[in-house]
Specification:
Chain lengths: 500, 511, 98
């Protein structure tokens, strides 16, 4: 692994400059340039036609919905929309690229000169300038076979599935981001989260990072404080979770600092992010990377965004996320601190979905910020990626409300759900986790507990009702937690003839 | 040879409609002719694949439908040959290249769908310069096609196969593609008719692209009317081609039948003649002008000064686009894959060996030239400049068409040259297209028809008509008049003057 | 404008993924030099005020509705593949073994 400085030391010496290229896969029904379906997860090479495979003789056709989604993204990023824009061919030979060129945009992107205000964890707003957002197509998927690791290095051969080839992409490119200082990693994460939030809110992308719907290339360079010119940058490719974006930027800052400290020069190159080691390695540069031979796509004609068209799309834009946040905080009745914690945890959408599915705002927050977040941390994944659906939370809550299970059992039920044992109700059944609600069984346990702690019983009789907790605890122990604590308390007080 | 196959497509269509002949008989007659003259050591070699079973099945279906009294397309049952650059389900499509040897397309080109909809039996796939790159058909990976007028001469290119098939009565009609003259120049040197429609007038979907902004599919035939008939079958809007025009392909047959040039102004392009043009070609051109004048047209000279740069600009734009369009042939998804003989076995090297083995010299030359013209640091000087020249050529056309209704020139500077004569001199080969290229650069339609035989070699020369974009009908109107007058002067079709081809014994198997 | 030389051709052949022998490179360099020489004047013909034409007939906003059209089966997709495995195209290793 490369040498690194500590983050603090790196920041003491150098001023980081960031830049991001975020690729957003659009959730159109069909591909960017063909009418084959845009569907994730199907059998290999079943969502392709001759266009996606780059067969001889084929021609592209532009998906109108994809253009409209791109314009919406541009508008949401406060960009200007090009009056007229064209497509261009970007050439590089790679087996996941059926034509050995990518149809993209070059000189005249559909959207340009925008900005995005990103809220950091302490509530400060950092403005990120957007250089451009352009339309292009995704590549197919390579699976590397043989060798020890399943990675490209050492593979014996690779298999290609072109289902993803031609899926519409919007690439959002920032201008160089200066002045983030020590908050660079945090800003990186917050920026990508904000873009993800915007495209999800627009409804133009499923925005699931774990599926690669939103992918980030992070550029990092360092320069001594006070210097105007930028240092040489590295581009870390395909950093595909919010946490990874933060870590990758952190790592690259530390690596660059160590290289510069040693007196060596940074090599301008692509880097690959490795989640397991939380580090980057040098990507082998593609041999054509220096010369993409862009030229205007002769098989396509310009897209002209008339003011009427743009305005009709603007009218369709949903409430912007920042405004939405204000509204949701109010609707959910969270305190500023509670709400910021939710936003910082990136769980607003999950909570929103859970509330929409029928849970109370308090319950939704309790689960996502509590047990689900805790388990996600243990598993080292984003909470959203853990596999808990809003429906699961709603079902857990209704099981609690009906008295079938208590909070403690609910946590065990959640474990069961995550272990793939089925829905919460199924887990309850399979594991036999129902709360003991048979008063007869409880009474026996209560009598036993009172008998073993006569002093406590006396205190309660004497009016020290809070002492009842000790007896409840004893009962819960005997029933292995499967009793309804509320009912146990009621029965104890009744047994002792005390008014709760 | 049965006299039946000497008829025009229009005449054959009439015979089918009158039930004087069945579609099966007609198709079989052409298949017999192919079997008789196409193969063997000195055969025409116009066909790379003969589609016997399917063609006869389509013909039988037409006969059955006609017997039932079903209303059929005018050309239903009239067989046709298809240039092997156009993809067809059920037959191989090679583009004349080793890299696609044996490849079968899983989809039909739009024009092929239209042929099928009109129920025209497809006789087979015709030979061409590899990926349509050439002017002689000698760059085919499957051997050259011979000119029926002189078997030692080239049939033109890239569509030499389609032109020779029609000239040798192997097919009454054929489809060609024209990027810089590949329909018109073979027409000129084989004594046949060929039309490059307005860019976007015929869908390119399924024509393997050479230069996307220049390519156009068009008809190949023996008469002007036949081209108009075929043009109306294949033309019209196609949502699969984003550069396809929305204009319907109508009025072309009517224009060919109208045949009247009285009061029309016809412009002789000063720059398309003189130095480099063979005397016999120029003499026949002058004869044609005289005929048009006598038919009531006014002949004026116009100057298109930027046409002088058309060839140079073309040889930047065409290879640039071709280098990009041919990148997909890499041995991954279809076609040839060649493994490197030594060294590491990576996909990058497999692509390199595949393309080295699969492409011929001319294709490689153009890919390298195009890669150069598009590469960083050269784009503005080469591709960018050439696109500006294109604007200048368009302006020349605009200025010319402000003065005249159609333009006229020889189609090609020379008659057919000998096989092998220019094979080692790419620049000399490129000069064959000097008169046809401006039309592709500007997207205007062009038609070539025979103007007669050059005195010095007795070989056919061609005359080219050019019209403003979307005015393809004018070509047919003027072409039909000229054709009628010329045929009157010759006492019949020019192909009647072509030497008879030796027929192989009937027992020879069709390919 | 610089003339094209053998090294240029070698670089271009690499960009274009066409392996060439030394003989081919020599020959190609000679031929291309002649061709490039004959077309280089083009860069001086048109002034800066002349716009480039990339389409012979200007069209705009030719757009397709987002409706699923025809799809190939995996068998059709793979029917011409030089090599395939488990419904996917198979290609040799992408990187050299280290």
């Amino acid at each position: 692994m490369d040498a690194t400085l500590s983050f603090d030391e790196a920041l003491e010496k150098y001023d980081p400059v960031l830049g991001f290229e975020v690729h957003v896969e659009l959730n159109t029904k069909t591909k960017m340039f063909s009418s084959a379906p845009n569907v994730f997860g199907d059998e290999p090479n079943t969502n392709v036609n001759e266009v996606d495979l780059g067969m001889p003789g084929v021609l592209p056709t532009v998906n109108k919905k994809a253009v409209e989604s791109s314009i919406k993204i541009g508008l949401a990023l406060n960009c200007k929309i090009a009056e007229s824009c064209t497509f261009a061919r970007k050439h590089y030979f790679y087996p996941d690229t059926p034509k050995n060129f990518q149809t993209s945009q070059y000189e005249d992107p559909i959207a340009y000169d925008g900005y995005l205000d990103v809220e950091l964890s302490d509530g400060t707003i950092f403005r990120v300038e957007i250089e451009r957002a352009h339309m292009e197509e995704d590549a197919g998927k390579l699976t590397h076979m043989g060798g020890a690791t399943g990675r490209i290095q050492g593979a014996d051969f690779s298999l290609v599935d072109y289902n993803r080839a031609g899926v519409p992409l919007v690439e959002i490119v920032t201008k160089p981001i200066e002045g983030a200082g020590a908050r660079a990693p945090e800003l990186a994460k917050a920026y990508v989260a904000a873009v993800r939030e915007i495209v999800k809110n627009l409804g133009v992308s499923d925005a699931r990072m774990e599926r690669g719907n939103v992918r980030c290339d992070a550029n990092v360079s360092l320069r001594p404080y006070g210097r105007e010119t930028f240092g040489t940058r590295s581009e870390t490719k395909n950093v595909n979770s919010l946490r990874a974006v933060e870590h990758a930027v952190n790592y690259e800052i530390r690596r660059h600092a160590a290289v510069l400290d040693s007196g060596a020069a940074i090599v301008q190159e692509t880097r690959h992010w490795h989640e397991d080691t939380r580090s980057t390695t040098s990507g082998r540069p593609k041999s054509d990377a220096d010369d993409y031979r862009y030229f205007p796509e002769p098989d396509l004609v310009p897209v002209v965004a008339t003011p009427e068209w743009v305005e009709s799309l603007r009218a369709e834009l949903p409430e912007p996320p920042a405004e939405r946040r204000k509204r949701l905080q109010k609707d959910w009745g969270y305190s500023d601190l509670e709400f910021r914690d939710v936003v910082n945890a990136g769980l607003m959408d999950e909570i929103g979905d859970t509330v929409a599915a029928g849970a109370s705002a308090a319950a939704a927050r309790k689960w996502w910020m509590g047990e689900i977040a805790r388990r996600a941390k243990l598993a080292d994944v984003d909470p959203a990626a853990l596999g808990v659906t809003p429906a699961v939370v709603v079902e857990l809550e209704s099981l609690i409300a009906s008295g079938k299970i208590n909070d403690k059992l609910a946590r065990e039920v959640l474990d069961g759900v995550l272990a793939g044992e089925g829905t919460p109700t199924e887990v309850v059944d399979k594991r036999g986790l129902a709360v003991v609600s048979d008063d007869g069984a409880l009474q026996a346990a209560i009598d036993q507990a009172l008998a073993t702690q006569p002093g406590v019983a006396e205190k309660i009789r004497g009016g020290k009702i809070q002492a009842v907790g000790a007896i409840v605890g004893g009962v819960m122990k005997v029933t292995k937690g499967q009793a309804d604590a509320g009912r146990v308390r009621e029965l104890i007080l009744k047994t002792l003839g005390v008014d709760g | 040879m049965t006299e039946l196959i000497k008829h025009s497509a229009a005449a054959l269509a009439a015979k089918l409609a009158a039930r004087e002949v069945s579609a099966v008989e007609l198709t079989q007659a052409h298949l017999d002719r192919i079997a008789a003259v196409d193969g063997g050591e000195r055969g025409i070699h116009a066909f790379l694949h003969v589609n016997t079973a399917e063609a006869l099945a389509v013909a039988a279906d037409v006969d059955e439908r006609r017997a039932r009294g079903e209303e059929l397309h005018e050309l239903a049952g009239v067989p046709i040959a298809v240039k092997d650059l156009i993809v067809t389900v059920g037959q191989p499509t090679t583009a004349g290249s080793k890299i696609l040897e044996g490849w079968h397309s899983p989809y039909d080109a739009t024009v092929v769908k239209k042929l099928r909809a009109a129920r025209m039996p497809i006789l087979g796939k015709t030979n061409l310069d590899e990926f349509a790159m050439g002017s002689s058909t000698e760059h085919s990976a499957y051997g050259p096609t011979r000119n029926p007028w002189d078997l030692d001469r080239i049939p033109g290119g890239s569509g030499g196969g389609s032109a020779a098939a029609v000239a040798s009565f192997e097919a009454p009609l054929a489809l060609g593609t024209d990027t810089g003259g590949s329909i018109r120049q073979p027409g000129a040197v084989t004594g046949t008719v060929g039309v490059k429609p307005t860019y976007g007038g015929v869908s390119r979907y399924g024509a393997i692209a050479m230069a996307s902004s220049l390519d156009q599919i068009g008809p190949v035939s023996r008469t002007v009317l036949d081209s108009a008939l075929l043009h109306e079958v294949i033309g019209g809007h196609d949502p699969f081609d984003s550069t396809s025009l929305t204009d319907p392909a109508t009025g072309l047959v009517a224009a060919a039948r109208l045949g009247n040039v009285k009061g029309m102004k016809i412009g002789v392009v000063k720059e398309l003649g003189g130095e480099g043009y063979q005397a016999g070609v120029e003499a026949r051109f002058a004869d044609s002008l005289e005929m048009l004048r006598s038919a009531g047209a006014e002949i004026v000279e116009v100057s298109c000064p930027n046409f002088d740069y058309a060839l140079g600009a073309y040889y930047l734009i065409m290879p640039s686009e071709a280098s990009s369009n041919l990148a997909k042939f890499d041995g991954v998804r279809y076609g040839l894959r060649v493994l490197p003989e030594d060294g590491p076995m990576t996909i990058e090297r497999v692509m390199g060996s595949t393309r080295a083995a699969g492409f011929g010299d001319e294709v490689k030359r153009r890919i390298i030239l195009g890669t150069y013209a598009l590469s960083a640091g050269y784009y503005d000087a080469y591709y960018g400049s050439a696109q500006k020249v294109r604007t200048l050529i368009q302006r020349d056309f605009d200025a010319a068409f402000a003065q005249v209704d159609v333009l006229i020139s020889p189609t090609a500077p020379t008659t057919a040259f000998k096989l092998g004569e220019k094979l080692d001199d790419p620049l000399a080969m490129y000069l064959n297209d000097v008169a046809t290229i401006p039309a592709n650069m500007a997207g205007v339609p062009g038609l070539s028809l025979p103007s007669g035989l050059a005195d010095e070699d007795g070989l056919p020369a061609g005359i080219q008509l050019l019209a403003p974009v979307r005015q393809d009908a004018r070509l047919y109107r003027v072409g039909a008049v000229l054709e009628t007058m010329l045929e009157q002067s010759w006492g019949g079709p020019i192909l009647a003057k072509a030497p008879a081809l030796a027929e192989l014994a009937k027992t020879t198997e069709a390919k | 404008m610089a003339a094209i030389n053998r090294d240029d051709v070698a670089h271009l052949a690499q960009l274009a993924h066409i392996e060439m022998t030394d003989d081919e490179l020599d020959r190609m360099a000679g031929e291309l030099a002649v061709i490039v020489d004959s077309v280089k004047s083009i860069s001086e013909v048109a002034g800066n005020d002349v716009p480039a034409t990339s389409h012979p007939i200007p069209l705009s906003n030719v757009l397709r509705e987002d409706v699923v059209g025809h799809v190939l089966t995996a068998d059709q997709a793979l029917s011409g593949a030089p090599d395939a495995q488990n419904g996917r195209f198979r290609v040799p290793a992408i990187l050299e073994e280290d």
